[in-house]
Amino acid sequence: MTINKGVLLALLAVSLLQASPSYAKSVPLTPATTVYVDDRPLQLVAQPLLLDGTTLVPMRQLFEAQGARLSWDESSKTVTATKNDTVLTYRIGELAATLNGNALSLNVPGQIVKGNTMIPLRFVSEALGSTVKWDALTRTIRIVSRNDFFTTVLSRVNLRSEPDSSGTSPSLRLIPAGEKVHIIREVNALWLEVRTKDNLTGYISAKPKYSDYTSPSLAERQGDELIAYGEKFLGTPYEFGAATGQTSTFDCSSFVGEVFRHTLSIDLPRVSYDQAKEGRKVGLNELRKGDLLFFSARGLEIGHVAIYAGNNKLLHTFSKERGVHFDTLDDKWQKRFVTARRLF
């Protein structure tokens, strides 16, 4: 008997669909998603899965990254995780778990997929006392497992409902100097998401005057912010002794003062000699974006200042012909180099 070629292909397609494992239909792979635990990327042995809006990730890595000890009963497919006084028990495939003897419900069950035991990320993390944040723009999940209050407020600052200092973002309360807060995440160069000891969550300014919080990633963002603002004045005329409080002309130190005051609320002395006493000293081999470099000029030991712009570049002004401009930190400048200072 002769079978039509089209019919044969259709029958083959149906048989392949029926042979597919059930999880492939109910647990589709998500687009690329990055998971961070306390600002460290979680290196997963399997790609996160999405089931009915819930993200599932490999079990062992999720528990251990948050400081939980794990025991696994292979016969019953039951996991017990212990973290300090918290004991979480869960049997894979069920919609209920036990936390310190109390029953908890899950939105979706854990599953074993291609040999990997996958469990709901948010449920497990929050059961262990962590905070989970989802950034839709970058498709990033951030888990904050620590509950420390190590960051000290240096100058009273508003705790805002949104990372915005305009009137559209009301203040939740004023945090006084000396109070300690927990940093949930760095929103950008200018804002931190924090939690207070009275369990309020909101946003405070990331500018150095308001807290003692620092990190390499925040310093990099703030350096970028400084240079981006300084670039707005490229070509602005040079005027020796230019008046402060205006931006139509600059000399080297008034330009640096304007950039730091406007961007990070750092007030600097008027002249470069005094600016060189601020912050802490760093070497040429340590430079990062936003550091200040000081040079001899006009017969003075320190008579010129520039902002390090990264990639061996300077952003400064000293020339009536060029105004504010970029330069290369070449041998000419290195021969006149005196010191470098870091302010944030």
TrEMBL record:
Annotated keywords? Hydrolase, Protease, Signal, Thiol protease
> Which SMART domains does the UniProt record give?
SH3b
Q: Matching Pfam families, A to Z?
A: Cu_amine_oxidN1, NLPC_P60, SH3_3
Superkingdom, natural source: Bacteria
Signal peptide span per the entry? 1-24
Q: What GO terms are given for molecular function?
A: cysteine-type peptidase activity
- Could you tell me the Gene Ontology terms of the biological process aspect for this record? proteolysis
Chain ranges of the NlpC/P60 domain: 220-344
**Matching InterPro entries, A to Z?**
Cu_amine_oxidase-like_N, Mao_N_sf, NLP_P60_dom, Papain-like_cys_pep_sf, Peptidase_C40, SH3-like_bac-type
Check the record and name the SUPFAM superfamilies matching this protein.
Copper amine oxidase, domain N, Cysteine proteinases
**Any idea where the SH3b domain is?**
145-213
Concerning its family, UniProt says:
Belongs to the peptidase C40 family.
Please state what the protein is called: Copper amine oxidase
The protein's organism comes out as Paenibacillus kribbensis
